[in-house]
Amino acid sequence: MMNTALAFNDEYWQAFVAADADYDGLFWVGVETTGIFCRPSCRARKPLKQNCQVFDASEQALEAGFRPCKRCKPELLAHEHPRWVQRVLNALHEHPEHRLKDEDVAALHVSPVRLRRYFHRRYQCTFQQWQRQQRVSITSQKMREGARLSEAVTGFQSEGGYRAALKKLIDAPNQHSSTVMAIQHLSTPLGDMLAGVIDGQLVLLEFVVKQRHLRQLKIARRLFQASLIEQRSALHETLQQQLNEYFAGTRKNFSIPLQTPGTEFQQKVWQQLQAIPYGETRAYQALAENVGVAGASRAVGTANGANRIAILVPCHRVINKSGNLGGYGGGLRRKSQLLALEREGHVK
Ligand SMILES: [Zn+2]
Q: Residue 38 catalytic?
């Protein structure tokens, strides 16, 4: 097992002993004698320093074999932040057009240095860069007015129920397998997508439509016998970049390795989907003929709906013979927006 533990420096040790919540999200402590890891603010009795390992991500503590403490629940989800960071984000949320400077952050009783460290660790960018990205995504959010709020789960304003359900999935590791699926929310002008990566291959990409995509996530988790962790892999970065280009109308094909296990019939249908060129559509009936079972358009529709990788396996390009849209797991509005994007080169 790889040891990614860091040395316990004095500042962190003092914060840990004082259970200082202002350090939550900056480091995690694994206790060798109990096999459990905690966030700094944990109220449980503090262990001896010599028995501690320090990690700068909760996934690293998990990978090193530590279990999350039941008391302080040290794992943070994609859109969860420690309370002190949340204070800053709330201020930003109230005035999204403002750029928060160091003195504004300090006025909220948050150390600008600590905040910088947090954003660097978590997003590999400065707080200022992050604010800029936020403003961009707020703008694109305004652009997609009409999207129902319950569908547009964005950033730190996510819905409690969705978050709780997702956390439950993450908290139930797969005991019988060491396969890990790294999941991460990616943002698009049509709303957040959840992306799952195993061994450098994309296994899941779904719009956040609460019920539907949690079910897909469960299916994928069972199919791959995987435990879930919240982690941004290199492939997530590449995918986010390519999605940005796709939504800007400058990318027509993706170069992302996929893993799409399924029945022989599903495989055939998904291959056919990938053969439909950008900007074109096919009828379910035509697809059935291509797969070699004319008349099986309903079965084709079902296999189409079982596709776990939205956009890259373009099930949105399949429509009814009559020309109406048929169904779409991500919602019909998104289906028509994707088709319009491919037709006109920009998101409406
Ligand atoms: Zn704890």
A: yes
pLDDT for res 145: 43
Instruction: Establish whether 72 is an annotated binding residue.
Output: yes
Listed by start position, the domains of the chain span 10-68, 83-143, 155-237, 264-344
Catalytic-labelled residue, pool 239, 315, 319, 339: 315
Distance (Å, whole) CA 201 – CA 300: 25
Annotated binding residue at 125? no
Q: Are 192 and 153 in contact (CB under 8 A)?
A: yes
Examine the residue annotation and report whether 52 is marked as an active-site residue of this protein.
no
What is d(CA 40, CA 46) in angstroms, rounded to the nearest whole number? Answer: 10
CA of 14 to the centre of ligand 1 (A): 16
Hey, what long-range contacts does 41-45 have (CB within 8 A, 24 or more apart)?
41/72, 42/69, 42/71, 42/72, 42/74, 43/19, 43/71, 43/72, 44/69, 44/71, 44/72
Task: Give residue 77 CA to ligand 1 midpoint distance, Å.
Answer: 17
Q: How far apart are CA 152 and CA 191, in angstroms?
A: 5
* pLDDT < 50: residue spans in the chain: 1-3, 78, 143-158
Separation between Cα atoms, residue 292 and residue 226, nearest integer Å = 34
Q: What is the pLDDT of residues 96-123, one digit of tens each?
A: 667 888 999 999 899 999 998 888 877 7
> How many helices (H) does the chain have, and how many strands (E)?
13, 10
The amino acid that residue 160 corresponds to is G
Closest CA to 217 of 236, 198, 245: 198
pLDDT tens profile 167-189: 777 777 766 677 888 888 898 98
pLDDT, position 150: 38
Instruction: Tell how far CA 82 is from the center of its chain.
Output: 18
Topology adopted by domain 10-68: DNA Methylphosphotriester Repair Domain (3.40.10)
CATH assignment of 264-344?
1.10.10.10
Do the beta carbons of residue 296 and residue 260 sit within 8 Å?
no
Nearest to 208 by CA among 274, 284, 136, 151: 151
Q: Is 302 annotated as a binding residue?
A: no
